[in-house]
Each structure stands twice: as C-alpha cells, then as structure tokens.
Fold this sequence. Notes:
By secondary structure, the chain is an all-alpha fold. The chain has a domain at 55-68 and 77-173. The chain has eight helices and no strands. Helix 2 (55-68) packs across helix 3 (83-92) and helix 4 packs across helix 6. It is globular.
Amino acid sequence: MDRRSTIKWMLAAAAVMPLARGAVPRSTQAQPYGTDPNLQITYHPGDLWPLTFSAAHRQLARILCDAIIPADATSPGAADVGVVDFIDEWISAPYPVQRADRALVLNGFAWLESQATRRFSKAYADLAPNQVRNICDDICYLPQARPEFRTAAAFFARYRDLTTGGFYTTPQGRADLRYVGNTPLPRFDGPPPDVLRQVGLI
C-alpha cells in the first residue's frame, strides 16, 4: 500500500471513531450517582441512604474499634467519639468502594463470631478483653497471617484503616496527635528558629 492510500485509510478510520463511540449500548455507559447533597442543611445518620449495622453489628463494631484504639490517659477510645457511626455510614454508601467494604466488613464480623464460638463457646460480644486479643492477634498483620487467616486479616486491615481514619479526623483524634492546624492565630511570625536551623536556612 502506498503512502497516499495509507493516509486515506487513517482519515477514514478517524472519521468513523465518533460514530462508533456513539453506538455504545446504553447498558455499558457509566451511570450517574445523582445530585450532590444540599450543604445548607444538617444531615443525620440514615438520611442519605439506609444504614447497614444491626444492633448486634454495632456492638461488635464497638468492641473491635476499642480493641484497635482503646481509651488511654490522653484520649477516649475510638468507639466513644462516633467511629462506629462513621463506619456504618461509610459501608452503607451506594458506591463501588463502599459496597466492597460493606461485604468485607459483614463477612469479617461473621468470621469473628464463628471464631468466638469455636474458640470460647461464646458470642463475640461476651468475650473477655484477652479473648478478643487472642482472635485479633491471628489477623492483626496481613503480611504475616497464616494462610487460613489471610482473608480475615484483609478484613482487619481495612477495618483498622477505617477506624483510624474515623478517629483521627475527630477533634479528639487531632488533639491526640497534637495537630495544631485549623486553628486561627492572632499573628504568624514565620517558622520557629529551630525548624529553620533543621532545614539549614539559618
């Protein structure tokens, strides 16, 4: 094929491409999520979509949140600052990532219940703190989890991410980190001298 014929073929293909894109069946096109929320009103849990957790789920979620971030001398535990509500809202949202997390969390809860029954003949909510740790120790670090615990360890890793993300975005969590941003200052005199010395500017 000579150069002129090649150019003709390329131009013809370019002309057809917009038509081909318009012919994509509607079922394969991305569907919108709907309108944005009205930011001028206050939403309460369950206003935007139905929530997932039952009372039993909430009890288990609270125990697990406090196993991950317990109360100490400097801050409350994760469950006491609303992290259970945050996780429930998160996994109830109708978006792909949240739907995947919903399945992961609910299956993880079922696994915890089965382990509580198998190991201690109790419901998870009735376990003593050392029994909760006994189960969590097997799944708390995904890279070192035994093969039979890897699925549960993947659940725990995600649940830990949600718990810490929820906790450290609360005022109490930011205070625990000693985060001083988002605070109005009467004046700003620039970086402290020790910071400037550390980066070699003085």
